[in-house]
């Protein structure tokens, strides 16, 4: 029965591909119609495949952004493996007699669900089992992987401030697609920014390593480092005091930073979409302290000092462009 | 708090016993990996438990379960990734910004992209790339072969494989 099903699917795939290859000749099309009429299963299999093809072809006129979106959807998928055997075993047992304690608990321990995440307007501070504290800013997500040997955090998106509780037997590791940072007890910020991870050291030091394990760099308090898949580099100094304050007050402190990067940051903290032409705005630079929990005001503050036009189409779509020198 | 009552336990136990096997089977065919399917099937129930969703009066329990699983596969993080990548590219074609794509159109397209991403989830990477290049970009099989560094035969094999995946993925 299952084998029969497989054969129908295979035949359907062969038909659909042939029709495309041979340019929909009338004779072939009729043969296909005839094949489909053999049973409802035949017709349904063809319909399912055609359905997906139609969905893709409907996006042809905007194939470039559509493809970028699909690539983004699958980028770095393999990096995250799912490991939840413990709870799975519990649930399988639960089919016989669902443990009441599981249901009565107000919430699952977060590390079972693996993900801690924030929405655009959220800030979340959490104390971990080892007494370390993490604070996530907007649109950020991480997995916790604690065991007897090490305390590991996988930062999937966004930015996290980490205050590591000292534990000389279990190193604390922050992992991103670009590399890892290893510490024993310290305070630092890790941010995902495009294909780079930005490490900002507020206290003590960590060892930062590129994903290909070719470069390792010790980064000390007051320094910022960029971690790429194949390299780690220092990127200037920062003031720990002002960054601590910024996290407390939900502010973004930027100094001479390209506008697109600043807009990315603001975008992460607002619901709705912020559109802009990255290349056209790349030469504008911003130095400011911006309120991240009031992004409308943050945008207005930027527009006050730079030649920008902000068009609000709906509350969730804002388009930012450079004002043309000639007044209209 | 009513969720702690025995009736809720009974309802969820019934849902689990009646449909876990089906959900696991569907996800296994879709993801092509028994481990991930087991994890995901488990997560689906965990999320329902966690959210205290009412399950006693479900008319279409399988549709409910597959929607929950879909939300887990294309989670908030990936939805945002899709959205960002799409809008960034759209913004690069600057003229497109004014008038051409209305906010409603953008929303519709994003929804369509999420659904496609969900359908393609679990497809082998090369097969997915070939499939998208063939039906979205409209490239020929030999163009795709050149671009991906594969033989023409292999590209065709991947396209068949991709179509089979699509069928399994939609076959609930």
TrEMBL record, chain A:
UniProt keyword annotations, A-Z: Kinase, Membrane, Transferase, Transmembrane, Transmembrane helix
Keyword tRNA-binding: no
Coiled coil location: none
Transmembrane segments: 86-104
UniProt keyword Kinase present: yes
Pfam families listed in its UniProt record: DUF4880 (PF16220), FecR (PF04773)
Segments forming domain FecR protein: 115-206
Chain ranges of the FecR N-terminal domain: 10-51
GO molecular function, one term: kinase activity
This protein's name: Histidine kinase
From TrEMBL, chain B:
Residue intervals of the RNA polymerase sigma factor 70 region 4 type domain: 114-166
BP terms from Gene Ontology: DNA-templated transcription initiation
Gene3D superfamilies: 1.10.1740.10, Winged helix-like DNA-binding domain superfamily/Winged helix DNA-binding domain (1.10.10.10)
Keywords from the named record: Sigma factor, Transcription, Transcription regulation
Boundaries of every RNA polymerase sigma-70 region domain copy: 15-81
PANTHER family named among the record's database cross-references: RNA POLYMERASE ECF-TYPE SIGMA FACTO, RNA POLYMERASE SIGMA FACTOR FECI-RELATED
UniProt-listed NCBIfam families: sigma70-ECF
Family per record: Belongs to the sigma-70 factor family. ECF subfamily.
Protein name stated in the entry: RNA polymerase subunit sigma
Source species of the chain: Pseudomonas fragi
